[in-house]
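Why show two proteins at once? Because comparison is the fastest way to build intuition. When a single record is shown, students tend to memorize it. When two are placed side by side, the eye starts asking what differs. So, the first record is below.
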Amino acid sequence: MVPLKTIEIPEKAFSLLKAGWDLELRLLKSDINKFQGKVAQLEKTHGMDSKTFKDKFEKGELGDEEWCFDWANYLDILCELMEKNRAAESVVL
């Protein structure tokens, strides 16, 4: 982890920075919700949770149908979005 950094910026610039940061957090959360919904739909459609899917997919037990790659990609994207969200939420403005 990088040590905390402090920067000085003018008040008007801070307002812009804060508004932009808040928007980014809302967009990240919206994207997380969207991909959680896609994953939940795939879990329901195929009758398995994502952990089971990932295990079977990585072992090559599910074939190479498009939905398999979509699901794997959605899980990767969701993981990346959640990591970005955790990092963004750790910033104190």
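Second record. Ask yourself what differs from the first in the token line.
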Amino acid sequence: MLNQDHDELIRLADVPRHPLLRRRGKLLSQAVVTRWTTHGVDGVRLESLKLGISRYTTDGAIRRFIDALNNDQPAELATAGR
């Protein structure tokens, strides 16, 4: 569950630039991030909330999403050279 009291909100438009989500230095498309919040991947959705006209998530929600997709192995930042 999103806990906006303890995590800083991240606009979904900024999620493709999140360091955990880069693949070989390339950014994700915004459509992929939106699909993660609406349809999910393998039954797992990226937690988000709508405030006004913008949708937000948190760093914690991104980490939980990645962990769930990786069978609960903690998400770590990719190291240089990977």
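One difference worth noting in the second protein: The longest helix spans residues 59-69.
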